[in-house]
Amino acid sequence: MMVEHTLKLSWNFFATSHGKGVVDAIGGMVKRMVWQEIMTKKQCRSATDFVCIAKTKTNTIILDEISQTEIDVAKLSLEQLFMATKSVKDTQKLHSVIAIRSDVIECRIYGDSTSKWTVFF
To answer: How confident is the model at residue 17 (pLDDT cuts 50, 70, 90)?
Structure first.
């Protein structure tokens, strides 16, 4: 994935902010806008309806519906990728992982730790 999409991949774990990011706030705001329309008797019976209603309520948030076919294709691709993935020892202790190459990662207990170790696949 890193090579295919020319990405620099890293993972940093912060327990205090786990699952509470900007995306969550935007999602909540969009749901509230759609809910307000539903309360005025607007019909919302599908994901397509939800996206259409949301698009009428905001022009600053980009909204797009992902089809079941697109989800299935991505799921299959990710399943194949993860079937070939190998585990890393002591992942519970890691707070920072950087992909160096598609077959090499650099692990640190903390992002700014001078102590690090390299895992080769």
So the answer is: low
User: Can you tell me the mean pLDDT for 66-85?
Assistant: 93
Q: Rounded to two decimals, what is the model's pTM?
A: 0.58
For 4-27, b where at least 16 C-beta lie within 10 A, e where not — what string? eeeeeeeeeeeeeeeeeeeeeeee
Mean pLDDT over all residues of the chain?
88
Distances (CA, A) of 45 to 82, 85, 96, 112: 34, 39, 42, 48
Instruction: Please give the Cα distance from 107 to 121 (Å, whole number).
Output: 13
Neighbours of 65 (CB within 10 A): 14
